[in-house]
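not sure who needs this but someone in the group chat was asking about ABC transporter ATP-binding protein from Rhizocola hellebori so here u go. i didnt clean anything up, its just raw.
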Amino acid sequence: MLEVRGVDARYGDAQALWGVAIDVADGEMVCIVGPNGAGKTTLVHTIAGLHPCAAGTITIGGVDIARLPGHRVGDHGVATVPEGRRVFGHMTVRDNLLLGAYRRRARSRYRQTEAEVYQLFPRLQERARQPAGSLSGGEQQMLAIGRALMARPRLLLLDEPSLGLAPVILDEVFHAIAVIAATGVGVLLVEQDVERAMSACSRGYLLLEGRIAAAGTTAQLREDADVRQRVLGG
Ligand code: ATP
């Protein structure tokens, strides 16, 4: 469903991505692993239309979205859960969720989607009227994922969902992500916690200095010399 081909990205004169090619099928969970500065966030931002694509194609269901601005990329079913969650702390949990449903493809079904989000994350329903800023870090991550789901995406981009979260909450968050994928949503996961990413996903890519250095099932990646040396710590 997502096909990225030959994608370059730059910051001024510095090139951050070089000819990147990746795929995510409907309902598939795919991870991008790599050391700090490898270009993982840049890749997520480029797919989401938040960073310019300097070369190549990014297609969703055959439609090239590579040159669309971020607010148009969402029309094609891409939703992002940004690093650091970025919920609106002074707004209620429910209002944060409803913000995610503003697009036409989602607006008419918002009640149904909201109920589905609460089924996935019952804590959000319990706290629906509270300010989002009063939630724990893990609950805010659930809210950020819930807000993305309100757009009824085909593809969910997750940037470092584990950052700063306790292991118990992480189990809950990763279980929910697997449930989301099982409903047919493609998931692309960027994650520092490589062990967790590899256990959660069926396939993955190793990004090194802006290039895809290895690709395969997560079982194959675990045996890859570069993966072992560069991200699994030998
Ligand atoms: P991390 O895990 O540390 O977030 P990453 O794999 O997500 O790393 P990116 O943040 O995508 O890597 O960075 C890729 C490269 O682009 C790095 O060399 C980084 O220094 C550079 N870079 C990132 N953001 C900018 C920026 N705003 N201006 C200039 N260079 C940048």
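also The chain has a mean pLDDT of 93. if thats useful
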